[in-house]
């Protein structure tokens, strides 16, 4: 799955990155002892991002034994971690290719501005109720058109509350983990609190629904304003988006 790009994409990226406000660091974590099928392709993507960002994006490589690996709680390889105005847990396990490339670019822009497009009610709920290390694992494949929506949601939530780890996990590269969680359709979303699996659901859900799932994992009732947002979506819209899944075969 080599990364193919043309002049048009290069120009588009230059235009997008012209809006970067603060420098962005992408930490790339590798395990030198493990086979890495897509590392060359990932390197191509990172080179492209660096070149088109006018040096506003820097890539820093780490190996498994580096102190940064422990500092940032990186437990699987290869991994990418995006830092900008602040250090958040915006993480990619596996290659951000195919449909995920767009999410990767949007994350870089968000990290550079520090601004997140979420309703005040959602930000408030995430800050108030997510009080322990909470990992949102989004299993994806590069060919899944709905997956970036779920990944972006998890990453925006991670920018609101540092207890949240937003993890894109490429199901083909981490096939043992995907098997463990019975990933047959993507995006498959798993919510862990303190390392314990609490809840899982499939599909790219609207933000209020997604937050409702996180609060459910905490055993918290949804605040009134969020209930109203959820009611405003209508059950059909929720069913539709949550049914937006892509069959995953490996």
From TrEMBL:
Do you know which CDD domains this protein is assigned to? TRX_GRX_like
| Alphabetized SUPFAM superfamilies for the sequence | Thioredoxin-like
Q: Which family does it belong to?
A: Belongs to the glutaredoxin family.
Q: Which PANTHER family match?
A: GLUTAREDOXIN-LIKE PROTEIN, GLUTAREDOXIN-RELATED
Q: What is this protein called?
A: Glutaredoxin-related protein
Source organism, top-level taxon: Archaea
One protein family per Pfam = Thioredoxin_3
**NCBIfam families (alphabetical):** PDO_seleno_TRX
Q: Which InterPro entries match?
A: Thioredoxin-like_fold (IPR012336), Thioredoxin-like_sf (IPR036249), TON_0319-like (IPR011903)
Cite the Thioredoxin-like fold domain residue spans from the record.
Answer: 135-216
